Amino acid sequence: MSKENSKKRIREITAFAAALLLAAAFSVPAGTEIMGVRLGNAVVASAADSGTCGTDLTWTLDDAGTLTISGIGEMDNWSFGSKDAPWYGNKRSIKSVVINNGVTSIGEMAFLHCINLESITIPDSVNTIGGLAFNSCTGIESINIPKSVTSIGYQAFCGCTNLKGIEVDSNNPAYSSEGGVLFNKSKTSLTAYPNAKGDSYIIPDGVTSIDFAAFCECTSLKSVTIPNSVESIGDYAFYCCSSLESLFIPEGLSNIGTDAIPIPAAQVKYTVVDDGVFLIKDVNLNDQLSVTFPKEIGGEPVKAVFIEDGTAGVTIPNTATQIKYTVSDDKVAITRATAGTEKISLTIPEKIGGKDVAAIGDNAFADCTNLEKVTLPDSIISIGNSAFARCPSLAGINIPNGVNSIGADAFIGCPSLGSITIPSSVTSIGTGALNSSSSITVDDSNPNYSSKDGVLFNKDGTILIAYPINKSGD
Question: How far apart are CA 323 and CA 321, in angstroms?
Fold first, then answer.
């Protein structure tokens, strides 16, 4: 079925459901038709308990509620509002479905609205599951897809409000599952998320597309994190996800389908700075008051998050280091970091929003107890007073050629700090800035400073400026 026809089916289902609700609210004469379906006495009339459902297929429904389908070949397909499955009139009586070996397909809308259906047996002979096949089967908690199935139609499991997992035979050549979620074989396309799996989901890294209506009617789902690997989101991907509060989306993802994202959901766009380090680029809270950034994205623990100072409504988990920055005169300054519980080696980006990161502000990383290493970009011009004060785990940092000033006490209280190399560009070093290091080396072309045996002097060596307290051999 084409994507356009799939969209049409969604509109038809929505309109038909509204019509049925309206009919329930008001007195409707027996025999009234709505969108081709006869209401009134025709709805409650007894249906046959056996018959045919394909050229060479038969069906029977016993008193225990077991629907058995037998024969060889394809099951018929049925269409919404015009041709129902032959057991549709007894849909509430169906508790289990047994499809015998030899049946090669499950027809479109075969078990639509079988709300008391709890179990389904699919044999290895079935190769196709039609669109809407199990739509609104609210009693099913799990479905096992055999190795023979190579085609699953649109919204096959949509509206299965108690479905917790879809499991796929490991030998299936077309599909796979991970944690009960249905993917294609290579796990690059997310095909269907079970309605009752959980209220939050972190899509695995490596997924490149989210299929048409993949999260259809996941009414309990509140938060979804999309990894940087995703390149497209299909039409109606989060259709009727009425509780969805937040979506975390990579900034570069622009191929987003029609009505893919419900408007009430907050959208937080991010970029990847380094392994486990992320930058929040844009926040649109929509109808939400606040959101919490995930602890994991694409299987990678979130260790640090850069966020513009003053950004409201986004909470960073306490496991991650939160790094705030400001933008002024086309330059970015890192203003304040709050330590997380995760150990981190941090690479600061050269640009944020196309603007140079030029300064590490006063006290910016002070008391970041889990900061182990920092890599500064070449764009840095200044390091402020006490910028890295009292970082007991900090063992290494580079001073880029381009830095002209290092503030007082910049690295005070950093007992793990090793050697520091001062480039030729540095013309000002504040009191106590480098005393916690183990050795200080100065570029020979520096006009203001020199070093000897790991000790910092003025240029001509007549004034001792800083003696490293952790200098080896002393």
Answer: 6
Query: CB-based contacts of 14: which residues, under 8 Å, 6+ apart?
Result: none
Beta strands, E only, 309-392: 314-315, 321-328, 331-338, 344-347, 351-352, 355-360, 371-375, 382-383
Is 306 in contact with 331 (CB distance < 8 Å)? no
Query: Would you call 444 exposed, middle or buried from its count of C-beta atoms within 10 A (0-12, 13-18, 19+)?
Result: exposed
Token pair of 411, please? 């690295």
**Longest Cα separation, the chain:** 107
- DSSP assignment string, 49-64: SEEEEETTEEEEE-TT
At 257, list the tokens. Answer: 């389908």
**CB-based contact 247:239 (threshold 8 Å):** no
CA 388 → CA 229, 385, 402, distances in Å? Answer: 34, 8, 19
Average model confidence (pLDDT) for the chain? 90
Tokens 């108690």 correspond to: 162
Q: Which of 177, 194, 193, 176 is nearest to 185 (CA)?
A: 176
- In angstroms, how far is CA 6 from the centroid of its own chain? 25
Q: What are the backbone angles phi and psi of residue 232, rounded to the nearest 5°?
A: -150, 150
3 state SS of 451: strand
In order of 147, 218, 228, 282, the CA distances from 247 in angstroms are: 33, 14, 13, 12
Q: Determine the Cα–Cα distance for residues 175 and 182; give it in Å rounded to an integer.
A: 7
Note the residue count of the chain. 474
End-to-end CA, the chain: 79
Distance in angstroms (rounded) separating the CA atoms of residues 227 and 300: 9
Nearest to 385 by CA among 412, 404, 356, 355: 412
Cβ atoms of 402 and 382 closer than 8 Å: no
Q: Nearest CA to 231 among 266, 248, 204, 256? A: 256
Residue 32: both structure tokens together: 């009234």
Write out the DSSP string of 340-360.
-SS-EEEE--SEETTEEEEEE
- H/E element holding 399? none
CB count in 10 Å sphere of residue 31? 11
Question: pLDDT, tens digit, for every residue of 354-410?
Answer: 999 999 999 999 999 999 999 999 999 999 999 999 999 999 999 999 999 999 999
Rounded-to-integer distance, Cα 436 and Cα 458, Å: 18
The two three-digit tokens of residue 469, written as one number: 């307290």
Cα distances from 316 to residues 21, 41, 128, in angstroms, run: 43, 58, 45
Token pair of 323 as six digits: 């790094």
Model confidence band, residue 7 (pLDDT cutoffs 50, 70, 90): low
Q: Where residue 83 falls among pLDDT bands split at 50, 70, 90?
A: confident
**Is the distance from CB of 467 to CB of 439 less than 8 angstroms?**
no
Output the pTM of the full model.
Answer: 0.81
